[in-house]
Amino acid sequence: MPHWTTLVAEKKQRQLQSIPQDWLVTPPPDSTLDVTSFPETCGLLNAREIEITNTSVDALLERLASAEWTAVEVTTAFSKRAIVAHQLVNCLTEIFVDRALARAAELDDYLKKTGKVVGPLHGLPISLKDQICIKGLETIMGYVSWIGQYADKNAVLVDVLIECGAVPFVRTNVPQTLMWPESFNSVFGRTTNPYNRSLTSGGSSGGEGALIALKGSPLGVGSDIGGSIRIPSAFCGLYGLRPSYWAYSVPSVFGPMTNSLGGVKAFMKAVVNAKPWLKDPLAVRKKWDEDEYNLADHGYGKDLCFAIMWNDGVVVPHPPIRRSLEITKAATPEGGPQSSTVQSDIWNAGSPEDFMITTSVTGEPIISTMELDDADPAVSGFRPQNGGITAYKLWQVQKLRQNIRKEYLDHWEATASETGTGRPVDAIICPAAPFVATPHGKNKYANYTTVWNSLDYPAAIFPVTTVDSTLDGQEPPHGFYDDFDKYVYEMYDPEKFKNAPVCLQLVGRTLEEEAVIKMTEIVDAALTATK
Amino acid sequence: MPHWTTLVAEKKQRQLQSIPQDWLVTPPPDSTLDVTSFPETCGLLNAREIEITNTSVDALLERLASAEWTAVEVTTAFSKRAIVAHQLVNCLTEIFVDRALARAAELDDYLKKTGKVVGPLHGLPISLKDQICIKGLETIMGYVSWIGQYADKNAVLVDVLIECGAVPFVRTNVPQTLMWPESFNSVFGRTTNPYNRSLTSGGSSGGEGALIALKGSPLGVGSDIGGSIRIPSAFCGLYGLRPSYWAYSVPSVFGPMTNSLGGVKAFMKAVVNAKPWLKDPLAVRKKWDEDEYNLADHGYGKDLCFAIMWNDGVVVPHPPIRRSLEITKAATPEGGPQSSTVQSDIWNAGSPEDFMITTSVTGEPIISTMELDDADPAVSGFRPQNGGITAYKLWQVQKLRQNIRKEYLDHWEATASETGTGRPVDAIICPAAPFVATPHGKNKYANYTTVWNSLDYPAAIFPVTTVDSTLDGQEPPHGFYDDFDKYVYEMYDPEKFKNAPVCLQLVGRTLEEEAVIKMTEIVDAALTATK
To answer: Is B116 annotated as catalytic?
Structure first.
């Protein structure tokens, strides 16, 4: 058997060969941190391709359905931009543009002949995290030992997307093991953040985050066991949704990452209405509910009341995060319907033990030793527990987790007495992490996302602002919760995080995806109105 | 601490004191096997009380809502009949008629004052399996050691039912551990079958089965981890429904047992529309779907196609079961909409290993040593495995179970090519057990029910006929699958099972309760039409 470095070299060579040679560009030097404008200035994309790739998912779907744009030209445009993006931030793994263009041509033919679209995502290029199998392709998932293993069938979700008319065209980078919120492995190397390449794009769906931020894909599919959709969405300034579990026993769920909420809605509605439960026995049989989308369970959107969670009682967020919460709080009363906020202590009522216990159940992802500087203090708590536990012990932990879920449900219901609307708090708005995208190797705290996995609450990410060194100066030290809180505090420096997007998280109740999307739309519109 | 027999004697004394003394009757001698007519001839119930207790749930709810009958008189009538039933078949545990009558009086007052019902189950007496906690009452669940432990709060389902206007009034007997399909324990003794007291009423919700068969309750709540609703429903000639899991990790689900399908529907609709997910974090957020009830996913009921599973490839059913399948097959083409059946081998395609593996995952209930004759052959396979397994092993078994669920789903979908309707088989009709109610201690095979728990398919029980010694003579020996199949074959004798009800099971797809209820209504109407 060849040495592992030989296997990697061969794989990288094959990857290079999968790129059309005339799409190779000369990227800016590493010292250029912000590369977001490069794809439009590098000369590879013509004006129409730039227009296509700058179009939001809803508008793309309309123009594809009306044959104003063909699937082939849309796929070509995104493929070119994806290849440029890859040369900037190293975001791709499998590249199969030929296959995608062949599928796009079929779709164009079908539409021409029948006058009908194949499905609700007709002609939309979709990128996939390097975890979602496609027949005939390797799924390396960051493991050298998986090089050369070709899938003999599509993942169920790929079949569903193809039925919906989507065009898978690239797969994207992840961390080795998937269990780390940065995207770095021995096969494909490290993905960087296009807003500031000295920062991480997050993980585990970090290739998606970087690619979509550069508009190299209109919509990507990530998976989220503890924040793997939300962290890269937040670090790269995207919209993303972690749905409720589709499964009884598999804590990882697939969800969309994209540049507009329209894309999130289009993906969720298309996938749910494709009846995935006829293909996946663990998918919940629950159709897209337009009534829930219209906030039937939230007074049809009248006087929405959001609880703001300023910090989790374990790690205090950095200044830009705090500012984004203030912006959102200020924006929501004026936005669309009347809104208000309850600064409710219940969401951070000193239950870090709860969180720790709870997250340990889902297989909390912060178990790697992939940091660049292993000498960091206070990270030992994030290392994996060695040795297995018994099934009996696991049941005890699951029982404990159920009790915690019941406790939180009762808490949430009890807020009805505080809101003034007669309803409990409609959603929670909170940080997605205590920081924006961190320098590589420093993203070591995921409890702002994992807590909602543990409770199985759906959560959407939405962008608010970017780091501003004038507005986001370091604050004087607070009373630190512990050494790790101090470590995070000391990590901050506005120059270091220059230009990084700042996103927040809107959290709803289990299997309430429709309402979470609608409420995020309302908040997003309110933020836009105040800009 | 007193000797356990003293504790039991004291408890039985308290139980006796909870019965109004003028409701005590002189039951027939033990040699009288069929006691179903006794409640109406014993003289305790007047004509109106007999009329009330013979009324189906839908009609009861209408008359209660229109104040034609008061909740107090309905509760009184069922309480009296329940007490008579208890004296015949030993079906009750906790008796709290005073509390129920006080609640009924409140409901009557409310209706009188407001002209409105409290909820969709306004004034309906409901009996509960001795597992479902009620504040201030013991929940003994067959354990002597639980005598004297009083609940400090209601189970969530009890709160939901009370909100819906129901009136809990008695709790009913179960086996020690709940993990045995007959109802016998050291505290309350053995519940017998009112159609033939030498037979079991089944378990674990066997007190419910016997009580409802004697019309001592219009509707009971059982729980089902492997057949505990369906086995007593089938053995006592009732309608019952095992819903899909409401929970991700708790395989036991609550469901209704009653004398009409109207009762099954009223219960499910009321409970689901009460939004149990606001009280129980494991309840699936899915409203009652009238469209699914109208069989939107089954061609709106046009040309329904049922697969008949004649046997499970492990144990061949007794003659009355086979006859009931033939009656149902013959009835369905003429019943209501056009129906047909596919004798599809896929449902028993020699996968007993699958079943065994699968049922072992859910905690298959046949693990007790409660049989009367421990010397029976071939029961060792049904004893519990000693010693724990690791969480890793459990995950492997769960993974295997998921693969099996996927395999069955694909099988079911593939039947579209066989039905002639363009749709897959709409439902499966199969035995609920290979036998009708067995003699006490002989109910040792539950795979006809557990298989659907493993696959998480909802399943309804419906009555077809009763054992007829002329029509149901013993058949010549078949080629036995194994010794246990032979043992079951040799157990049969039409005289032994005299007068026992024969029921079947209709099985649908996960979270498709509405359609399962509707299809069972269609089959039931077809059977009625041929009688």
So the answer is: no
Mean pLDDT of A505-514: 95
Band (pLDDT 50/70/90 cuts) for residue A107 is very high
The encoded tokens of residue B448 equal: 């006809």
Which of B278, B285, B510 lies nearest to residue A277, judging by beta carbons?
B510
Query: Given CB atoms, is A414 within the 8 Å cutoff of chain B?
Result: no
Please check whether residue B250 touches A, CB under 8 A: yes
pLDDT digits (tens, 9 = 90+) for A405-435: 888 999 999 999 888 889 999 999 999 999 9
Question: How far, rounded to the nearest angstrom, does the alpha carbon of residue B460 sit from its chain's CA centroid?
Answer: 9
3-class SS of residue B65: helix
Q: How far is B462 from B504, CA to CA, in rounded Å?
A: 6
Q: What is the DSSP string of B210-265?
A: HHHHTTS-SEEEEEESSSTTHHHHHHTT-EEEEPPPSSSS---EEEEEESSHHHHH
Phi, psi of B116 (to 5 degrees): -120, 150
Cβ separation of B393 and A391 shorter than 8 Å? yes
ipTM, two decimals, is 0.83
Q: Which domains does chain A have, with CATH numbers?
A: 4-278 (3.90.1300.10), 295-530 (3.90.1300.10)
pLDDT digits (tens, 9 = 90+) for B503-514: 999 999 999 999
**Which residues, 6+ apart, have CB-to-CB distance to A74 below 8 Å?**
A52, A60, A64, A104, A123, A124, A125
> In chain A, whose CA is at the least distance from the CA of B284?
A511
CB of A280 less than 8 A from some CB of B? yes
Q: Is A387 within 8 Å of chain B by CB? A: no
* CA nearest to B412 within chain A: A278
Taking the Cβ of residue A423 and every Cβ of chain B, the question of whether any pair is shorter than 8 Å is answered with: no
Average pLDDT over residues A111-134: 97
Q: Could you tell me the pLDDT band of residue A355, with boundaries at 50, 70 and 90?
A: very low
Q: Is A228 in the active site?
A: yes
A37 in catalytic set: no
pLDDT in tens, B396-444: 777 777 788 888 899 999 999 888 889 999 999 999 999 999 999 999 9
Q: Cα B207 to the chain's mean position, in Å? A: 10
pLDDT at residue A389, rounded to an integer: 62
Residue B142 scores a pLDDT above 50: yes
Q: How many other CB atoms sit within 10 Å of the CB of residue B499?
A: 18
CB pairs under 8 A between A and B: 91
Q: Which residues contact B47 (CB under 8 A, 6 or more apart)?
A: none
Supply the pTM of this predicted model. 0.88
Distance, in angstroms, between A288 CA and closest chain B CA? Answer: 11
Mean of pLDDT over chain A: 88
The answer to whether A390 contacts B392, with C-beta atoms less than 8 Å apart, is no
Of A279, A398, A409, the CB nearest to B281: A409
The answer to whether A204 and A181 have CB atoms below 8 angstroms apart is yes
Confidence of residue A251 (pLDDT cuts 50, 70, 90): low
Q: Which of A11, A129, A265, A269 is catalytic?
A: A129
Three-class DSSP category at B329: helix
Verify whether the Cβ–Cβ distance A389 to B390 is below 8 Å. Answer: yes
Residues of B in contact with A455 (CB under 8 A): 281
pLDDT for B368 equals 35
Residues of chain B with C-beta less than 8 angstroms from the C-beta of A249: 248-249, 398, 402
